[in-house]
Specification:
two-stranded antiparallel sheet; mainly alpha; 162 residues
Length: 162
């Protein structure tokens, strides 16, 4: 089940929306320059950064889970008598990693597309491709916006029930 109140979900969704907005801006610039001589179309890459942030956030949660105090019952019949087991000491690298702000390093990369073929005027924008890319980016944006909306609706329901 998706945790609708998760700060992590909201943070990652926001980063995805930011990346998609940058992509839509780049595509709009490409469309506007479809007839500009020697214009090189722009692309925006952010998915690998976002995947790395998610992976590192999962690792942070794993380290925290492995190093938290674990309670275990002493006997099967006595669930009230629980004693903590000692967590291991974290290394300096683990402490630094746990304190790092994974989200701050996020920076969608805007790059020139040097791999597409060019027309006789040196322009490599294909209007049909840009329109398809704009539609894909818009659809992804709507999906992430709806996820964010659900998160806030879930939060609103919790607050209303108080």
């Amino acid at each position: 089940m998706v945790d609708l109140l998760s700060t992590r979900t909201m943070n990652i969704t926001k980063l995805g929306l930011d990346g998609l907005m940058e992509r839509q801006n780049a595509i709009s610039a490409n469309i506007a320059n479809v007839m500009t001589p020697n214009y090189q179309r722009k692309e925006v890459a952010f998915e690998s950064q976002l995947a790395e942030i998610i992976e590192n956030d999962n690792l942070k949660n794993y380290i925290k889970g492995q190093n938290s105090i674990k309670y275990t019952p002493q006997t099967v019949d006595d669930f009230m008598a629980i004693t903590p087991s000692s967590p291991r000491q974290l290394t300096i690298q683990e402490k630094n990693f746990l304190q790092s702000d994974l989200y701050r390093k996020y920076n969608p990369q805007i790059m020139d597309d040097v791999f597409s073929g060019t027309d006789p005027q040196g322009n490599n924008v294909e209007l049909e491709k840009e329109m398809m890319d704009l539609t894909k980016a818009g659809t992804k944006y709507v999906i992430l916006s709806n996820l964010e909306k659900r998160s806030f609706e879930g939060l609103s329901e919790v607050l209303k029930s108080q």
